[in-house]
Design goal:
Number of strands: 2
Distance between the termini: 29 Å
Shape: globular
Number of helices: 5
Mean pLDDT: 96
Helix content: 40-55%
Low-confidence stretches: none
Strand content: under 5%
Largest sheet: 2 strands, antiparallel
Order of helices and strands: HEHHEHH
Strand order of the largest sheet: 1-2
Radius of gyration: 14 Å
């Protein structure tokens, strides 16, 4: 099984060229990545650990990390819902660190 540090290196290389950076708090990032790996074992896919997954891959498709809400969250708030992926400006304190509201429709979480 992959370690959180291995996943960190893999995702960093894949996401930074797209403009998505890991939160500068590496301890936080590694805890989220560890939870992603737990969900991968549990469900067979990397469901967002900050949300309740149903165990149905199709039903959870929108919250498979990186979730479908990440781009809009980072564009609007500088951070995704989990504070895993952030903008460079967020990491450099050029924009305020504000609460990121849940974009997932409530009916998607009802199971």
């Amino acid at each position: 099984m992959m370690t959180p540090n291995e996943l960190y290196e893999l995702l960093k290389k894949a996401q930074e060229p797209k403009g998505f950076f890991f939160n500068r708090d590496k301890e936080w990032v590694l805890s989220i990545l560890s939870d992603l790996l737990v969900n991968k074992q549990r469900y067979g896919y990397t469901a967002c650990p900050c949300r309740l997954a149903s165990g149905d891959r199709e039903g959870d498709r929108d919250i498979i990390c990186p979730c479908t809400y990440r781009e809009a969250d980072v564009r609007e708030y500088g951070s995704c819902f989990c504070n895993l992926y952030v903008s460079q400006d967020w990491n450099e304190d050029k924009i305020p660190h504000v609460y990121v509201p849940e974009r997932r429709p409530p009916e998607k979480a009802a199971f």
